[in-house]
Write a structure and sequence with these properties.
Low-confidence stretches: 246-266
Distance between the termini: 21 Å
Oligomer: single chain
Strand order of the largest sheet: 1-2-3-4-5-6-8-9
Order of helices and strands: HEHEHHEHEHHEHEEHEHHHEEE
Bound molecules: (3S,4R)-3-hydroxy-2-oxopiperidin-4-yl beta-D-xylopyranoside
Number of strands: 11
Shape: globular
Largest sheet: 8 strands, parallel, barrel
Length: 338
């Protein structure tokens, strides 16, 4: 049998990949089985997919991904239990459309977390319990989501408590992007420290890792790993990709002809080498931190489909996205496999 990444990294940490339904068959399934020993559902455990109407759960896709993983001895990361996006409106509103009280929202959150986490109890080694709750602007601490507007800060601790109660064996994570940026890093640190000080059951922090060729710098990555692990938390890299083309076309910029070319011609040797060097230096850091890093997950399988690809002016991602998504006009080539 050909060795894969998971074999080379067996003395370090599991190597994961985010998947959608299309990845469970054929060539994509073969690639997953050869290279990876952890998977994350890209969208299928998000509230909008798994719990589209109050009390009505749609387990089909999540079950299929979990069954695939269990039958192939692949570990599963759960993603995610609370986010400001991909959450249906019913969560926050009553039948007249008015925002519900804090009490009602926390009860709905508890119902949701308890039902989903219990269903997969013992099968999920880590859950992203809260995703992206920190604000991006330097002046503001928490994101002004409906969770925050209705509950204040309290939803944070509650989400972890509900999840821990439903599956005491799962490691519980706070997950965010740009977590290496010094100003955002300190706000995330503050949030994590508050939770730890309040004895909230949190095990670690997920760094999404949607990175570029030169940004964040290796120094900033190491500083972030030091800073978060100083709280006694584990770290998982949850959504790694290294885009080699800015994903958002600026208005008024002429169309990028290279981006409409097939993969082989758009992806030059020179830029491929820069990306390989970048991945090498990133993974050197991860190996240096193997005592605190407990898994590294890529966000998608190969450059044939990435959520960072552009299609008709919008990100290509979406609940139904797959490598069959038509009319990609601007590709990001952020992954290891072509
Ligand atoms: C993305 C998916 O890849 C897309 O298919 C979807 O349209 C939007 O969400 N941070 C996260 C992930 O935590 O859940 C996001 O996934 C990417 C950014």
């Amino acid at each position: 049998e050909q060795k894969g990444l998971k074999d080379y990294y067996k003395n370090y940490f599991p190597i994961g990949v985010a998947v959608n339904m299309a990845a469970l068959n054929g060539q994509q399934a073969e690639l997953i089985n050869r290279e990876f020993n952890s998977i994350t559902p890209e969208n299928d455990m998000k509230i909008s997919v798994i719990h589209p109407l109050e009390g009505q759960y749609n387990w089909k896709n999540a079950d299929a991904i979990v069954d695939f993983a269990v039958s192939h001895h692949i570990k599963i990361r759960g993603h995610n239990l609370l986010w400001h996006t991909q959450v249906p409106d019913w969560m926050f509103r009553d039948s007249t459309g008015a925002l519900v009280s804090k009490e009602v929202l926390l009860r709905r959150l508890k119902d949701h977390i308890t039902t989903v986490v219990k269903r997969y109890r013992g099968k999920i080694y880590a859950w992203d319990v809260v995703n992206e709750a920190i604000d991006d602007s330097p002046e503001k601490y928490l994101r002004n989501s409906l969770w925050y507007q209705i509950c204040g800060e309290d939803f944070l601790a509650k989400a972890f408590e509900y999840a821990h109660e439903a599956d005491p064996t799962a490691a519980l994570y706070y997950n965010d992007y740009n977590s290496e940026d010094p100003s955002k890093r300190e706000k995330i640190y503050r949030l994590l420290k508050n939770l730890k000080d309040a004895k909230v059951p949190i095990d670690g922090v997920g760094l999404q890792g949607h990175w570029k060729l030169n940004d964040p710098s290796p120094d900033l990555i190491r500083t972030a790993l030091d800073r978060y692990s100083s709280l006694g938390l584990k770290i998982q890299i949850t959504e790694l990709d290294v885009t080699i083309r800015e994903p958002r076309p600026r208005t008024n910029r002429p169309p990028d002809t290279a981006a409409t070319m097939p993969v082989d011609s758009g992806y030059t040797e020179r830029i491929a080498r820069l990306q390989a060097d970048r991945y090498q230096s990133i993974f050197q850091i991860f190996r240096d931190y193997k005592k605190v890093i407990t898994s590294v997950t890529f966000w998608n399988l190969s450059d044939r489909y990435s959520w960072l690809d552009f299609r008709n002016g919008g990100l290509a991602g979406g609940a139904a996205a797959s490598i069959n998504t038509p009319r990609i006009v601007r590709k990001a080539y952020p992954l290891l496999f072509d």
